[in-house]
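Q: I'm building a small set of examples for a reading group on sequence design. Run inverse folding on the following structure and report the sequence directly after it, with nothing in between.
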């Protein structure tokens, strides 16, 4: 059972989650709804880990201090 919390940022909004949460959980917590998740699932948007400059999936693991950004695909 997760007992520790971690903080990540989604589009510059701090989000506190339980350790073991995924990218999808962070997007939902940041907005209070599933709008960003739906955009990523539809393929019109992607999630980028700003710390490493790479795209991450909705099922990706989170780490403390991670900075996520949701961008429109080009």
């Amino acid at each position: 059972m997760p007992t520790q919390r971690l903080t990540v940022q989604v589009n510059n909004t701090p989000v506190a989650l339980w350790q073991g949460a995924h990218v999808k959980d962070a997007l939902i917590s940041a907005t209070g709804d599933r709008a960003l998740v739906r955009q990523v699932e539809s393929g019109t948007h992607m999630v980028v880990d700003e710390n490493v400059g790479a795209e991450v999936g909705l099922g990706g693991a989170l780490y403390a201090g991670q900075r996520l950004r949701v961008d429109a695909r080009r």
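Residues 23-31 form the longest helix (9 residues).
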